[in-house]
Amino acid sequence: MQLLFLYFLITCLCDFADANLQDITSGDPPYNICTNSNNYATDSPFENNLYNLLGVLSLNTSVTKFSSFYTGDNSDRVYGLYMCFNYNYTTYVDCKNCIATTASQHIVRYCPNEKEAIVWEDSCLLHYSSEDFFGKLDVKGNIPKANSQNVSDPERYRSVVNRSLSTLSKQAAYNPVNNMSATGVESFTKTETLYALVQCTRDLSGDDCSSCLQTATREILSCCYFLRGARVHSRSCFLRYELYDFVNGASESSVSSGNQAKGKGKCMPQFQHKNLLK
Ligand SMILES: *[C@@H]1O[C@H](CO)[C@@H](O)[C@H](O)[C@H]1NC(C)=O
Ligand SMILES: *[C@@H]1O[C@H](CO)[C@@H](O)[C@H](O)[C@H]1NC(C)=O
Ligand SMILES: *[C@@H]1O[C@H](CO)[C@@H](O)[C@H](O)[C@H]1NC(C)=O
Ligand SMILES: *[C@@H]1O[C@H](CO)[C@@H](O)[C@H](O)[C@H]1NC(C)=O
Ligand SMILES: *[C@@H]1O[C@H](CO)[C@@H](O)[C@H](O)[C@H]1NC(C)=O
């Protein structure tokens, strides 16, 4: 029996420096990077180890929002880690759903037979590789996403965002009780309040965490300081800020109505249809 599957392969490997602002304002998760460097064969020991790894990592989502693990020997070894974004409402059940159900399925579907892949979902990231990447800062190919609406006072917003992210980055990087994440609130105008979350993968050193968040902050502010909210998806860290309380689960529609303009441009996620015969 043949079953036809249609699925979307989402790639947004844009050159960040060239990205014009519309390029990065739309497209929902998942985002993924398949490194396309090496392949594993179907039914190989590497594939077995990968599925085993995804299973073991998924189990730990019931007790921790970050975990790393490797399994297998020599060229069949697979390293992997996940991080669930530490929103104040994120439970271990949410973490499990994101990793065990969503991200694990997406990572093998979008990057079939790849020896390294990363996927970012709405509330988690999952990364595996045949190379040992634990403890290594990696800010290549960061994926920025921004809200398409402008703020009222962009120059001031830039400095408020910068100051807030910088304070939070220090808390995340250098205060061990924070598990490498921090959230904060800062007033922007009389009626608008900035909410922010920063987080690093917990295999990093404090200095590397700080450096990851600084890079992400610099990148997002250089393109998008005049936009109301943004996220940076990096392999080593995640940051997000908005003018609504997403940290506690508020959604944008609860504070401002109106459709978000959807941008079109060279860095838009490309949806490619693929036929899979099984
Ligand atoms: C840090 O993570 C551990 C489990 O990995 C958890 O028990 C603890 O509550 C976390 N602390 C904070 C401040 O999130
Ligand atoms: C799962 O979490 C526990 C508690 O944090 C830890 O001791 C164990 O090493 C973790 N296992 C994996 C595979 O990450
Ligand atoms: C938003 O702000 C940017 C930078 O100030 C400006 O170039 C752009 O035209 C503005 N867009 C809108 C819709 O006002
Ligand atoms: C952000 O603040 C740092 C100092 O904390 C400063 O060096 C940097 O230029 C600022 N960046 C922006 C875009 O304002
Ligand atoms: C999230 O929860 C922590 C711990 O309860 C609290 O300190 C922090 O202020 C909260 N963040 C926001 C934005 O509400």
UniProtKB/TrEMBL annotation:
Family annotation (CDD domains): Gnk2-like
Keyword Secreted: yes
Annotated Gnk2-homologous domain residues: 28-133, 139-246
Pfam families, per the entry: Stress-antifung
GO cellular component, one term: extracellular region
Keyword terms, alphabetized: Repeat, Secreted, Signal
Taxonomy, superkingdom: Eukaryota
Cellular localisation: Secreted
InterPro entries: CRR_secretory_protein, GNK2, GNK2_sf
Signal peptide (from-to): 1-19
Family per similarity comment: Belongs to the cysteine-rich repeat secretory protein family.
PANTHER family for the chain: CYSTEINE-RICH REPEAT SECRETORY PROTEIN 38 (PTHR32411:SF43), CYSTEINE-RICH REPEAT SECRETORY PROTEIN 38-RELATED (PTHR32411)
Protein name: Gnk2-homologous domain-containing protein
